[in-house]
């Protein structure tokens, strides 16, 4: 399977299925503010995209940056993010992250994987989102869509997102890493859905391991 072809066919499939399709998480990250990207990604854990967007807007409608959030009360933060999964736990996590960035990094979000992963609750996916959407650095965030699609197509045969990331970093040329997450998320919503994938309109179906297995069963 050719990596360039995969990205181009995925792009065309998304545009044909829904020309306006944009993942909610990407829409919320268009401003490129690393702190908002970081907080939004933490909020997104085990939460639907629309809920994440709503909570992020409420939070930053009240607290405009690192220092304001770091000085907030846990009760008000929890109220602002109510609706996301584990919002009471996340309210404490957000305050902890904001205070560390204020006190240890001079109010600026670190821009390296190593430093980002020192922050509480920040794993590789979150760190990669910040690098890509906050700093425009080449990385591949792997969420459930990226992990599922990579394994369905047969690009990866992995059990964890971290394993999938390693495979994708080898598979795609580095100059195209910035595209992978957004395209795969959009593709995962419009075509290669978790339930009821639209294999009949997928331009990669003939090369897809998942589709091949379906045909063999039939």
Task: Describe this structure as you would to a colleague.
The protein folds into 2 domains: 3-20 and 139-217, Helix-hairpin-Helix base-excision DNA repair enzymes (C-terminal) (Endonuclease Iii, domain 2), CATH 1.10.1670.10; 31-134, Endonuclease III, domain 1, CATH 1.10.340.30. Helix 10 (144-153) packs across helix 11. It contains 13 helices and no strands. It has helices spanning 3-17, 24-27, 34-44, 49-62, 66-70, 74-80, 87-104, 113-116, 124-134, 144-153, 161-171, 177-190, 209-217. It is mainly alpha-helical. The radius of gyration is 18 Å and the shape is elongated.
Key traits:
Endonuclease III, domain 1; 2 domains; 13 helices; 0% strand; mainly alpha; single chain; elongated; 218 residues; 61% helix; Endonuclease Iii, domain 2
């Amino acid at each position: 399977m050719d990596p360039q072809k995969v990205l181009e066919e995925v792009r065309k499939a998304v545009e044909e299925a829904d020309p306006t399709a944009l993942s909610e998480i990407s829409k919320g990250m268009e401003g490129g503010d690393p702190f908002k990207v970081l907080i939004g990604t933490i909020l997104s854990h085990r939460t639907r995209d629309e809920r994440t967007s709503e909570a992020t807007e409420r939070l930053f409608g009240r607290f405009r940056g690192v220092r304001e959030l770091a000085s907030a009360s846990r009760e008000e933060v929890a109220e602002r993010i109510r609706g996301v999964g584990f919002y009471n736990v996340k309210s404490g996590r957000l305050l902890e992250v904001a205070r560390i960035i204020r006190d240890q990094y001079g109010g600026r979000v670190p821009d390296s994987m190593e430093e980002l992963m020192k922050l509480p609750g920040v794993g590789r996916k979150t760190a990669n989102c910040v690098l890509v959407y906050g700093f425009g650095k080449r990385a591949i965030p792997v969420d459930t869509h990226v992990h599922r699609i990579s394994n369905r197509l047969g690009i990866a045969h992995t059990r964890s997102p971290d394993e999938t990331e390693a495979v994708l970093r080898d598979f795609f040329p580095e100059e195209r890493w910035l595209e992978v997450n957004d395209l795969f998320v959009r593709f995962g919503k419009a075509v290669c859905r978790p339930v009821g994938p639209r294999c009949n309109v997928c331009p990669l179906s003939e090369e897809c391991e998942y589709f091949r297995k379906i045909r063999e069963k039939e």
